[in-house]
């Protein structure tokens, strides 16, 4: 079995985790499509945050990459392979941890591994390694209700990472946490990312979180309820190095630029 620090490769030996979103569209049948013509090229190991006003299609995009929903048009490719449904190459972390309350931390992390065919011993060892990766070595025998929200989400992340996805998809993973825990978990996510090197696509309402964690921030706009299909307004690179200081002037300047982009009005002609 691979360990948390291993770099994943495809069967051709190239680094895994390349995501191509190609002219993606989704309509739920209303007068305006939820999303239209969304194209993104995400490199292996890249961390991309998706931000935008409510209803612009962030979660819809993530669900289509996850394979939970089929696009109306366009396609998603992961390492060159079209996404036709959920798959082990993509791990999904949701806001509501989704842990089994009757299983311990170790059992929760091991569960997916056992389902994927790992032996009891392999699953146990890997669960212990991944509990350590997220700083929960001392809590492997605890049950979810004995843990704080932040700790439960760490279990949720460890459980997904134990399956060694080449792409980690996260929809507001820290949204249910208080501000202080959220900040700690952002540090944790940044550290995990440096260690594991998985491609990350993160949907967040927090511009600060996006600037803190991402290599690029995708700003989406529009949405069915705005009368304009959801679309990519701009993709902004975050060139602030590996260890970021949220109090630095350059950090604030980028936050302000992104806030302005997120809240910019839709073109009058398009919205008409
Ligand atoms: N299952 C569904 N059936 C019908 N409409 C849907 C469905 N899921 C999403 N939509 C619509 O698609 C649009 C995009 O929704 P989505 O949840 O992707 O937006 P979002 O940017 O993630 O929003 P938020 O920031 O509020 O979570 C919205 O207008 C929403 O009402």
From TrEMBL:
Record's keyword terms, sorted: ATP-binding, Hydrolase, Nucleotide-binding, Transport
Domain ABC transporter positions: 19-248
Q: Does the keyword Hydrolase apply?
A: yes
By its UniProt entry, which PROSITE patterns does this protein fall under? ABC_TRANSPORTER_1 (PS00211), ABC_TRANSPORTER_2 (PS50893)
- Any idea of its EC number? 3.6.3.-
Recorded hits in SUPFAM superfamilies, A to Z, give: P-loop containing nucleoside triphosphate hydrolases
Protein's UniProt name: Aliphatic sulfonates import ATP-binding protein SsuB
Organism whose genome encodes this protein: Isoptericola dokdonensis DS-3
Gene for this chain: ssuB_1
């Amino acid at each position: 079995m691979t360990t948390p620090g291993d770099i994943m490769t495809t069967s051709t030996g190239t680094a895994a985790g390349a995501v191509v979103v190609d002219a993606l569209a989704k309509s739920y049948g209303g007068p305006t499509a939820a999303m239209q013509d969304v194209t993104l090229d995400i490199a292996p190991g890249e961390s991309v945050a998706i931000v935008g006003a409510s209803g612009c299609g962030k979660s819809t995009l993530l669900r289509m990459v996850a394979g939970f929903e089929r696009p109306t048009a366009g396609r998603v490719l992961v390492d060159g392979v079209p996404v036709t449904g959920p798959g082990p190459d993509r791990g999904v972390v949701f806001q509501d941890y989704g842990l089994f309350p009757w299983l311990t931390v170790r059992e929760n992390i091991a569960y997916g591994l056992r389902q994927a065919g790992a032996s009891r011993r392999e699953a146990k060892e890997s669960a212990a390694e991944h509990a350590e990766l997220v700083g929960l070595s001392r809590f492997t025998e605890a049950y979810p209700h004995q843990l704080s929200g932040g700790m439960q989400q760490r279990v949720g992340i460890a459980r997904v990472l134990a399956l060694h996805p080449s792409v980690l998809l996260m929809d507001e993973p820290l949204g249910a946490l208080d501000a202080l825990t959220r900040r700690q978990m952002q540090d944790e996510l940044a550290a995990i990312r440096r260690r594991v090197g998985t491609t990350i696509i993160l949907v967040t309402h927090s511009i600060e979180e996006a600037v803190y964690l991402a290599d690029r921030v995708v700003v989406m706009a529009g949405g069915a309820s705005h009368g304009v299909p959801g679309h990519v307004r701009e993709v902004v690179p975050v060139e602030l190095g590996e260890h970021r200081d949220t109090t630095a002037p350059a950090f604030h300047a980028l936050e302000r630029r992104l806030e302005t982009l997120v809240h910019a009005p839709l073109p009058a002609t398009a919205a008409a």
